[in-house]
Each structure stands twice: as structure tokens, then as C-alpha cells.
Protein 1
Amino acid sequence: MHRERRPAQISLALLIASTITLAMLVLAIFLVGQTFRGMESAKVQAASVAARHLAISVDDRILAITAPPSTALAVLSHDPLSSASTLEERLSRLPVIANILRSSNIVSAVYTGYANGDFFLLRKVRSSGVLQFPDAPDGTRFLLQAIDTVAGEQRREWRFYDDTLNLLEQRAVPDYVYDPRSRPWFQSASETNRTVLSAPYIFFTTRETGLTLSRRAAGSTAAEGHGGTVFGIDVTVSDLSTQLAELKQTPGTHIAIVNGENQLLASTNDHSSPGPEISGALNHQGTRVSNSAVTRYEVEGEDWYGMSEPLNALSAQQLKIAVAIPADELLSEVWKTLVRQTLIAAVIALVLLVFGWFIGTRVGRPLERLTDQVSQLSRFRFDTQIKTDSNIREARELGDALDDMARTIHSFQSIATVLNRGQNLNELLHDILLQIAHIVGQERGAIYLFRGQHQDLSLAVNRDLDIPDTLNNITNDLDDNELIRLLRSQIGGHPVFAILRNRQKHLVGVLIVEMEHGDHTHLSDDLIVFVDEIAGSAAVAIETRELIESQQALLEGIIRLVANAIDAKSPYTGGHCERVPKLAQMMVEEAITSTAPAFAGFTMSEEEKYEFHLAAWLHDCGKITSPEYVVDKAVKLETIHNRIHEIRTRFEVLHRDAEIRYLKRLLQGDDEKTAQDERDDTQAGLQEDFTFVARANEGGEFMTDEDIARIRSIGERTWQRHFSDRQGLSTDETIALLGIPEAELPARETLLSDRPEHRRGWGDRIPPVQKGDPANRWGFDMKLPEHASNRGEVHNLTIAKGTLTEEERFKINEHIVQTICMLDALPLPSRLANVPRLAGTHHERMDGKGYPCGLTADDLGIPEKIMVVADVFEALTAVDRPYKKGKTLTESLTIMAKMVEEGHIDNEVFDLFVRSGTYRTYAEQHLRAEQIDAVDESLFMNNA
């Protein structure tokens, strides 16, 4: 391949640095050589002296730690506990041991080991400021660990005591295996009458670092077997670390105490073993400084000074104290002096800089041109091409590097835009793959998504790769390396794999980029790390989008659940909450595409369509509060049951009364024909009156004044009641009768009645639907009935139209109030803020006579007007209403045309409904065949 020939190049560093830097180095070496060595030596010697003083101070502290426990142990060796052979005898000495523990913060346990292997130990449950036994009962201060021999068998148990030695819990611990005779503290104390101090070690139970003081009981000899009885006291040395921290010479100083085997006893750092800084101080690795005991060495690129001194307090343990000081902290004063010396050098450098400036201007012009181009980058113009024709190699390479940087940043901008703005998961995956492949200069790739329920990887996006659609046997617990090995065994070529994991490190999927262009085919580590980092951001974006979509699906499911629950609540309205959204959505789509003047500027975004969709599904959610017997009321006397049966019984009583009167007259000798005629006339009248009452109970389109008067007349007939009406009542019925005196039996009752107990007041639960109500913040404007309910028999039977009383009609209408209140109480996001209004206006009228707010056509938008038409048409054509049959298309449209004239529904929306044929499309999907008749649309469009 032909390469463009470049002009001869020279090094900018060689041209300028060789003149100015060389002169500065000579001056700097001269100044540093005069001051650094002497000041370093002085500082190191001072540090060495301080380390020796520190060793003396620590010696004193160790002696202070061990002296009091040693005294207590000497006294304890004469205690009767040494000869106690049973657990009960040993428990009697528990207060003595507890007093030893209370008297010292550093004593963590006091115990006794016996020649037969018994063990009796009392310890604090909180030692070194840490709760050592988290499962101890609340209030525990001490833990007794006891092993005693009973009938040749060892019994192992733990007992938990509070501060006053009250037993809180006794716990058998069969797995607690411990033989004191095998422990060094027991064996070493058995051979002498003096107190024995152990080397620092890790305690058996608490895993703390400390010392053990042990002493053979007075009068006990080694001849007794395994040394007789031995007392022991554990002493923690954690407070040594606190004292060491107070003695640091500089903030970064590390101090540690170790034994002869370099085991860590105490340290200013929270480590379980000596760190590399302390190890350097102990082993004297590095370079001796000025013939002193101080060594200079390097740890992880940082210089340290280290020294160590022996401790005499525990000479048998060969303890040493090691000190490591960061060089930059120890020599901070030295460096300050060097700064002052550098200022002197700067004066000399000024002279040299004059000459350097002259040279620099000759080579700076290309850099100025690069600066102008880079300034475009500072204004976020990352599509700017950076180039220079300079003969200086560094300037040309800098231009090339900046150009690469600009292209890379531009690619990052593109992928950031994709990750932030992706709305659809499938489109997001395509864009992520495209952008990442573009950044690494490739074209082919794929993305698999992990399906936890199937334990596999499913192919979501593929750009020209011959790979399987599903990779099976993939589990979430596979680490990245195992997963990549599994993928390489099934996918050929030269792919780079990026494992996509979410914030919780759970597997999301795998991104694959096929490396087939340029220099990237060698799969460098830098490239793999780069793709992994970009894929990490992509995984978070994918997780976020999946979460949003799952939340939206959950919201949809809950809404459908509520709507289906409302429909399922009543067998007469099933499917209403599902059919209205479908019809409303059809009409919205027609309105958007319509060219009619009324809809010329109407459009809806996807978010607005979704908002309308939710509102349509929730338009009757308030019905969940409507009493079922009101919603399903098929006859006028129906409440929980049809009360016509009670009235029929009263007619039966009057019928039998007529029969009884007839028989009595015969017994009295009256004329049989006259008595029989009277009976027959009375019974025939009762049959006729009951038939009329029963027919009135069924309801209808209209009830005349004459019919109402006849109901009242029939109701005035009386009958005799011989049983109390105050027995067997519910609490609600009893409360309703309070203040109403009971009539004496037999009582004369009317055939139909409106009793005081039939009327129930609002009490303190008045709905906020009236204007002027302080609780009415929604703008409701509805008439509130005088009573919450009225079950009076005459009141119900004289309903002029339909089966609902004024009170029940209000209860039905109140569902829209509850719909608005319920939806308004939801913490809906701003994009769904109009859901309460869209769902709560489908009972408004264009003339302002609707409810609940009495809005007019000017107050309603096209979506609200569409909801009105959809709700009306579905109600007219529904076949599941108890008070009417589903109407045909012609009947329904005729009624709706009349409603347009009356100002109930909107003229333009009804015209769109007819012209677009939406009514017929809906009918073909949801109406019965007999309802779908031939419609003369011109009749309704003219009307419209």
C-alpha cells in the first residue's frame, strides 16, 4: 500500500528540553546536593531516638497490663475453687470470679482447669468493645463455659448470666470440645509454683489476640496428674493499639508490636498480620541511612523509613516494636527548604528562559493552530477535524491524537443519547449494538438476553451473525469467565464478549461484537476492557427499560383487575369496563385521522393516548363503592332481597281473614249466599290489587298519577299483627327503631307502609358534592337527597320511571364522584395527570345539566366528549342490564340523535361516530347478530 511521504521531523522535546532542562538540572543538582543529605540524616537520627523512647514507653505499658492480673491470680490460687469437684461447688465461687472480671477492663476471662479434664471458665460476653456472642440472650453480661465429669461422662454446657449473676439461659453444648490439660498455659504452669505468662496468641473461643497468665493452685503438685489444678486469666492487649496510635510521629506513621515469630500483637492499623511497611522495618530491607539503625525502602511505589527496637518487658517472648514512617511526611520540612532553594534556582532559570522563549516561538506556531482547532472541541463541536502540517513530530502526533479523541467522544455522545432516550426495549437493543460496534470499528454483532425462568440466553438482536437462537443451561451464578468459555464453545469467529450485569450484579445478557476489521482482530486487553465498560452502561439502561416496561405492565394489570372486579361484582354489567375503552380508543383513532373541521387540529402523542387508555379503563372504578343491591336493582322493592314476598304474605293474611269472616257468619246463622258473595268479592279484590302491586313493582318507562294514587289507596288497607316486630333484629335495625315506641299487640298495620325506620340519614358521612362544601375541592355540583336511603314500600312502589328511588339514583351517580376522588388520591406521574378528569367526565352533558360538575361543551375537550358517546352507546346496546333489553343499532342511534338535540352528547363527535362506521365495527365485535340491523346513516348524519 502506498503511504504518503511525510516531511522530515524533529523532536520538540529534544529541541527545547535539551537546552533549558539541561541547565536547570545542573543548578538543581548543585542545590539539592548541598542540603538534602544533611537534613535527611538529621531527621532520620531524630526518628531513631524517638523509636527507642517509644520502646521504653511500651515496656512500661505491658508491665502495667500484666501486673494487676498477676496479683489477682496469686490470690485466686488459694481459693476453694481449686478443690471443688462438682459443678455446684464451683458455681458457689462464681461471685469471686465475677468480681475479678469487673475490676479490670483488660481481663476478658478467668478459668480453672482440673487434672481430670474438667474446665470452669467465666468470661465477659463483650470484650474489647465488641459483642463476642451475638446469640446471647438480651441483658447477658457473663458467659460460663463449664465441662464437668458426672458418672464418668463429661457434661458440656454454657450458662448466660446478667450483671448480678442471675441465670438467663442454660444451654447444652455437646460440640464444645476442649481439654485444658492439652493447652500450653496448663502445661507450663503445672511445672512451676510461679505465675507463667504466655506468648501472645489467638484465644480459642473469641479469636482475640491476648496473653494468658496461669498459676498452679496452692497445695497442688505435678504428681497429682497433669499438674493438679491450674488457674488462668486471659488479658486482651487491644488497648496497646490505641496507645501506639497516640505515639505516632506523623499522621501516616505505622507502629506495630510483634513477637519473635513476627506475629502481630498490636498495631496502629487494623490488620491481622504485619503489613509490607512493617515487614520492611523488621527485616531491614533496603538501604541503611547515615550509618544508623534506620532503613529506607520502597512499598508500592512509596518510600518509607523503618526501624525496630527490642522490648524488655517480656524478654522471653522476644517482643519487638517496629516503626515505619512515610518518607514524604518525615522529610516534609526538608522539602520546604528545597522549595526555598528552588526559588533561587528560578532566578537563574529566568535567564535561561529568555533563550528558551526565542526557541519556543519558532516551534509554537503549529501548536497555536492546534489550539484554535481544539477550541472547537471546548464548544462541544466534536465533529471538528483536527490536523496540522507541522514538521515537529510531537505536534503532528498531538493533532492525530486529538482527532481520535474527538471522534471517540462523538461516539460516546451517540451511545449516551441512545441509552438515555430509548423508549422501546427492542429498538434500544438495536441502537446499543449498532453504536458499540461503530465505536470499535466493526459491523457485525448480537445481543442475547438472559431468561431466568428458562435458564437460557435468548437471541434478542442479531446483525449478520450465524449463531443459535437460544443458548441453554445458563445459570445466574456463572461467573464471567465461565460464561465466556461456554459461549466460545458454541460461537465461532473472533468475537468480543461483554457480559451485561445490572446494579445487583445479576446476569442481564451478553453482547457480542465480531472483530473482523482493522488492527482490533488481535483482541487486545484494552479493547476488551473498553467494550466491557461501555456494555456496563448498556446493561443498566436495559435493566431500566425492562423495569419501566414491567411497571407499566403491572399498572395495566392492576387497572384491568379493578375493571374486571367491577364487572364481576354485578352479573348485569359484566364487560362494560372492558368494552367502553375499546370503543373509545376506536373513536380517538378516527378523530386523529379525521379531516372534518372540528378535528382539524386534534392529535394525541403516544403518552396522551396511553393516558386516555388508562382513563377509559378506569372510568367506572368508583362503582366498586356502589352497593350491589342498588346496581343490580331489578324491581322497585328489591334491597338485598325482593320485598314483594313480604307484601304477598300480608295479602295472604287478608285473604284468610275474609275466609274466617265467612265461616264466622255461617256459625252465627247469617245468610250463606250473602256471606259467600262478600267473601268472594273481597278475595277477588285482593287478587286484583296484588296483581297491580306486583306489576307496579316491576317498573317501567312511566307510571301515571292514577296508578300512584291507587298504590297509596291499596296501602291504606289494614291487617292485624299479633307478633312483636322488635325481636330477631340486627343491630342496624335496632338502632333505626330507637325512640319509636312499640305498638301494643295485636297491632293494626297498613298493607303498604312508609315507616320512620325505612329512612336513614347521612349522619357525619355527607358526600362533598354540593357547592359551598369546604370539603368539595373537585368542583362537584350535585343535588344531595334529604336521606341517604329510603326503603319505604309506598315510596318505592310509586317510583314514576324505572326502579330506582331518588336516593338510589344519587348512589348510582355518586360512583363518578368516587371515581374522581379515588384517582385524584393516586400519586400519578405528571404524564398521567389528566386521568382523573378524563375518567370522571363521561356523565357530563353539553348543555351543562350533567354531573358531577355540571360542565358544558366549552369545558370539555374532544377526548372527554368521546368518552361520553362511548359510554352511552355501550349502555344502549348492552344486553346484560336488568331493566332493559339491548337495543339494535338503529334504535341506539335514534336515541343518541335525540340526545344530540337535547344537548346531552356532542354533535361533531356523534357525526364522526356515524360517518366513520365506528358503531358498526364495534357492533361486529361485541353485539349479538339480532342487534345488527341495516342502518340508514343519512338520517343521523343529517340530524348531526
Protein 2
Amino acid sequence: MKRIITLIICVFSFFFSSSQETESLDLEFENARLDEVFSLIEENSDYKFFFLKDWITDTRITKSFQDVPLEDILSEILEETVLNYYILDDRIIITENNIVHKDFSFQTEEKEIAEQTPERVNEENIPYFLDENDKAGAITTHKIGKESDSRGNEYYTLTGRVLNNKDQSPLSNVAILVEGENKGTQTDIDGNYSLRLKAGPHILIARTLGNDIVRKRAVIYNDGTLDFSLSESLEQLSEVIIDSKSDRNVKEAFTGVSVIDVQRIKTMPLVLGERDLLKAATTLPGISKAGEGALGFNIRGGREDQNLILLDDGVIYNPNHFFGIFSAINPFTTGSVEIYKGNIPAKYGGRLSSVFDIRTKKGNTQQIAGEGSVGPVTGNLELEVPIVKDKSSLILGGRATYSDWILNTLDEEALNNSEASFYDAIANYSHQIDENNDYNITGYYSRDKFSITSDSLYAYNNMMFSGTFNHRFNNDLEGSINVSNSNYGFDIEYDSQFDNSFISSFEINESKLRIDLDHRLGRDHELNYGLATKLYNIQPGSVSPLGNESIVENNSLNREKGLESALFISDEFEISDKFLLNAGLRFSAFSALGPSTVNSYADDAPKSENSITGTEEFGNNEIVKTYSGLEYRFGARYSIFDDFSVKGGYNSTMQYIHTLSNNTLVSPTDIYKLSDTHIKPQRAQQFSLGFFKNFNDNMYELSVEGYYKLSDDIIDFETGAALFMNENIETEIIQGEGKSYGAEFLLRKNFGDLNGWLSYTYSRSLIKLDSEYPTQRVNNGEFFPSNFDKPHDVSVVMNYKLTQRFSFSANFIYQTGRPVTYPIGKYDFNNSQFVAYSDRNQYRIPDYYRLDLSFNAEGNHKIEKLAHSFWSISIYNVLGRNNPYSVFFVTDNGEVKAYQSSIFAMPIPTITYNFKF
């Protein structure tokens, strides 16, 4: 107490004294604490230090000074601390954070002084900021940075991390709000946040569903850090399945963004008890599938190949198992899923409709943890292993099906030769080098094998590697470098009783490099810019004999190569407190590379083998054809009220790679084709407008959004096109126009005993295939419905919590039947009978609807347990609706017969056991 009183007297006395020039000293410190440095200065000079020992950290100093003024010595040794100094005669007064001000104008009004020096705060006036809701110990005060003599900055950057108090794992999607100010932000996947705040005191609130609310007072002197540690709140376990990141839907400038909360989909009843991230996504507006069991997604009227699926920035070409019945993305190792279907950020490109940005969660750096499940056909296990405590962790995840074993135990002759199996594995290593550097490495592999008939075996696999290094240059500039490689391929083994057995295969490989920089320019601008490049390498198809007796000859199509590159920049510009603009540009270019043989075709005839007029040869890596274009990304938000905003956007995109399939639905044996001399890149532009409103402190969320999208050079095919192993594939392809439009409605209750959402989408997807040649003209060159045009789509997802441990969940899905082409008559020609079909996609299969129910039971919530368990008993398709997967027609003895195939035509009961430790 005596030293504190002395320090206060000395600080007060400077008003009546003046500082003097200091002497120069010869000093040398080696691995010395700061208080030891002070003592050494006192021994070598006439000065005396006044400070509190609590301010001294264990930081060690090694310095050497020769004839250096004392002020310069003090400035250098205190540069990396939050301490300041003031020299008064022979006394050196050390202060924490703030400085001792020399100049005061006592004629200035009190209000003006407060405005000019908002950072001038010390512990004696802190009680001024307490309010009636603050209790002892409820709010802690943290001084951030240290005050400077410079008056240049009014705003400073506060950064930090939000961690789980139990295991110190990072928490994403946490809202960091500034009390009494219209300001806030969200933590990213690593739990990091950043805020621009005025100098002076602020009360920060960290809140998220499932955790207690934490309030802290931050007194801002300069740039600095403030971390939060949140404890779990048992009252909010499993209340919300999908969350929109608090008020992000109202505050951000982007339209058409959906966020899946991975931790809260466990109560959602899904087929065969498999927790499925991508199936959960299809219950949100604007996201649908062509049919039950179909691969791929149709986003706002787009084709399945127009979606970019990213896992830790590495491309996954087929994120499905077993014809889309299961997702190939492990839910236990996934941290977040963000889906961009309106405004796509400028850093993403290469697809027209959407980006699925899937991120692996950060592992536990404190202790071994894990999660798993056992279902009727699959088992899943995830482990988190600390490698370096508080710095690095390894996540291992594996999932497999034992359906082969189940098929072999069934007494059904038709299934004796059947095969259906899959597995996937993922490994992720993350390492925090220091506060400015970290890196993340992910490896992924999946494989499927299935046999539909006794003579054919299908197999396909994904393989992906991704590595990202992140570096923070300073508080305003951060950057990352990502390298990735993705590989997808399939094999078909045909084991015939005759001599034509064969094995055929396809493979695509993609290598990518992306450099990404985030730069804050003052309080109003946040720039994101960088470059990306990727190299495609495709084996379009090969056939080889299967067995020694096969007469099939080896055949392999020429490989395809292409280089796609882009430069991008975007700026999020806060024009005012109400008006936020995000504007981006992306310049992309693509070059088809040799070796290649390019056909030339007659100008007055459609492309066919008969109209080839010559060929041109290109050598290895020689440029065959180049395309380029400027893509625009604009989004704007205007806040009518704090919880009500209107947003609009414009988005243009280009796509240089295409999926080739003449099946009604996408299949795992579809092939990929690069743009070249004859096949142009697909292009699209989308306009969107939406209204977003939250109620009752973000408990309820309401949004209505409309869009209109135009597309050019959309891929389609001539009737009866042969695609696989076709050397002249351009002769089968037609490129046309597309347009889609619609409105999306979402009403969501985020928490409470009853929670869930209602989504409704009205959408139309139309295509126009017109040409001067009749063989390339469809439906007289008029717009007609695409294969995935489904005007009405309704999803209701509800969860009701009976107690802390028991809950009921339900899904109801309704969709308009997709278009189909029906036979409408038959006719005789040359003594033969033929079937006459309607215009393409003139009719529709029956509408689709399904009801699912589940009962969920959690184990007791005792903290000291080996593992926490969770049981789910569900019934998929409770009504037993025989929803058609497809409708096809067969001519039998001159009679046309219609057949309908279904995936799940009866109720499917499931019981699944989940555990977490």
C-alpha cells in the first residue's frame, strides 16, 4: 500500500514539475527479467523506479547499449510490453497500459476532454462503468494494448479466440456483440474473431446456443487480444438442428447463404439412422435432389455438375455413397458447412450454381477425445489425439458399412451374388506454431463397390489431399497458401459367360494452388484478394480384357489436360451503419492443353463423323484453345432496423468443366469433360433480392428471397447419345440456354422446447436447345422443363424436447414430381411398329412426399463418465409411400408397358447408438 500511495503522489506531482533531459548509459542485459533490468539501471544511474510487481511478466530481455540515452533504452525494452514510463526529475514512473499526459487544458469542458481522450481510463474510475445488472465478479475488466502519444488512431483492432472451457477446443459461430452499440462479429472455424473498436471502454458479450453467456469489459488503448472461455449449458443440448449463425442472416451483405450446424443434426430422422450433413441441407430452401437416391444437388435450378464441393479447400467430386443414399462426408469430423447459392465470394470459382464449403473441426489439444456410432448398416468412429499440448492435434475418422455381411446372411436367392459396400477415411493435423502462424493438413479417401447384376461390378473412389498455411502479418493483414490434389475415378468389371468380358475405367485428377489475403483498410474496408490456379488431367476412358479368354482389345482414349487460373479481389465496404456493400471481381482464364487431336467440321452441316473435314495435331502442353472472362460479384445489405434488413445481389460465373451423362439422373459412372475447341464454357448470371427478419433476440428467423438466373452454353445431348469411349464426343453434345427463377421462404425457431423450421421453395428450371439443324433442335427450339424442374418443394423439420434427455423429431417432405417423357402413341412403318413419344419432359412422375419420425434418448449428464451415449429410434417413410425414383417404358409383344422403380417403398425402422468421450 505504501508503494501505491507513493506512486500516486509521484504521478500527481508532475503537474507542478517539468521533465528534464536524461543521461546516456552503457548497459548490457542477458536473459534478465524486467524488474532486474530496472534494478541494474538504478545501480548505474541516479534514477529510482516506481511500479507494481504484478505488472512484471516472466519475459526475458537480452540487450546491449553503448552511450544510449535513458529514454531510448526505456522505449526499447518496454516496446513489446503493455507498460509505459514517465520521467520526473530522478524518478521513473511505470504505468500499465495508459500514459501520463503532460498537457491539459483546464478551460475545456468535461465532455470535450472525454471525447478527446477516450482512452484515458484507470482502475480508479472503473466503477463509473458498472451498471445495476453487474454483480461482483460477473464482469472482469481487461486493458487492451498500451496507450501511445500519437493521436492518429481513433479505432483499434481487437482480436481473440473463443474456446470451450471443458476441453479448450475452439468454438465457431459464436456471436461477439458490443453492448449498447450496433456492432458485432462471429468466430470462424478456428474460434477466432476480430473487431474494430473506438479507444475507451466497451462491454463485450460472447453468446452461442448451447453455452453460457460471458460478458467482459475491454478498455481499449491500442491493438490487442482478448480471449473468451465458454462453459456448456446443459439446458440447450440438441435444441437446434441447423443454425444461421445468430443474426448473420440479417447483418451480412451476402444473399443465399445457408449454414448447417453440424453438432445439432443428431436428432434429425434420416434413412438407416445415418447422420447426414448433405441430406440435412436438402431441407433448406433452394437446395434439392433430382430424386431419392440420386447423386448430386440441384441449386436454384442448376445442374448437378454446377456445384463446387470443397473439403478444407480440396475438391470432392462425388460426395456420396451408394447412389446418394449416404453422404461420403463424415459428420463426426466436420466442424462447419456453409453453402453459397446466391452471392458467391470472389475467391471461389469454376462452378455456376453453388459452393459447399466444408471444414474439418479442430481437434482437442488437451486430451484424447472421440465420438462414434453403430447403426444397422454402418459404423463410424472419430478420434482426436493431442500431439503437442495446446498447439497441435490429430483427428482420425473412419466409417464403413457391413451391408455385404447382411446380404450374405439373407436367405434370398436373388441376392446371393449381390455386393454393396463402402468406406471412407479422413485424417486431419492442425498445428499452431505461434500466435501469427499455423497450418492445417487434411487427407481423405473413400471407395464404393456395388453389383446390381450378377455379371457387373461397379467401383468408384475419391482421394484428396489439402494443406493450408496461415500467417498474420499484422493486425490488419492476414494471408494463407493452400495446395491441394483431388482424384476421382471409377471402374466397371463385366464378367460375361461368353468371351467379351472387360474392365473399363475413368479418372480425373486436379492439382490446385491458391494464395489468399485479407486486408483491413481502416474501419470501413475489408479487402480479400489473391490468385488461384489448377491443373486438370483426365483419362476419358479405357477398356481392357478381363481374363485370358476375353477377345476384347485394349483401347484407351487420349488424355485431356487443362489449366484454369484466376485473379480475384473483393471489398466489404461499410458505407454507413445501415448500408453494407460487398463488391468483387474475378478474372478467370482456361487453356485446353495438348497433346491433342482436334477435328475440323464442315460449316454447313451438324458435327458428326461424316462432316469431319480434317484434323490438327497439338504437342504436349501446347495451347489448344483459350477462354477467359470477368466475373462480377455484388451484394448489398440495408438495415431497416437492427433485426430487419433488405439485401440484393448480382452474381456472374463461368464453368470450364462439365459432367457428361445422358441418364435421367446423375450416376457414379458419369464422365467429366473439359472445355475445348468445340465445347464452350458454361456461363451464368443471377439476380437476387431478399428480406430478412429476426424476432425475440434471434429466437425466430424469417426470410423471403427471390432470384432470377440466366445461363448460356448449358450442356445437353442428342437423343440416344453414346458418351463413354467416344473419341468424337462433341458430335453428341448440344449447348443451349437456360433460365431459372423462384422464391424461397424460411421460418425457423432456433431454440426452445419446440424448435425447427418450415421451408418452402417455388422454382422453375427451363432449358432451350435450338439449332439450324433438326437433329440438334429439341421441342421446336422452345424453352422446356429441365430434368430437375420441381416447382413446389416443402420441408418441415421439428424437434420437441420432453425432458433434458428425451425428445421427439419429425420431418415432412413434399416435392412436385420431376419431368419425364411419355410415349403418347404408336405407328406402323415398313411393316414394323414404332412408339411415338411426347415432347421432351412434357409430363411428370407422381409427386413425392415422405414423413419420418424419431425418438431420441440421451444418457444421463453426469460429468464423470467414460462416455456419453445417445440413442435414436427412427422410422423413415412412416406412411410407406411408394415414391417413384424413375418411370420407364418397355415394349412387350407390341404392347407398351410402364414401370416404376422406387428406392424405399416401405417404412424403414432404425435404431442407432451414438457415444462420445
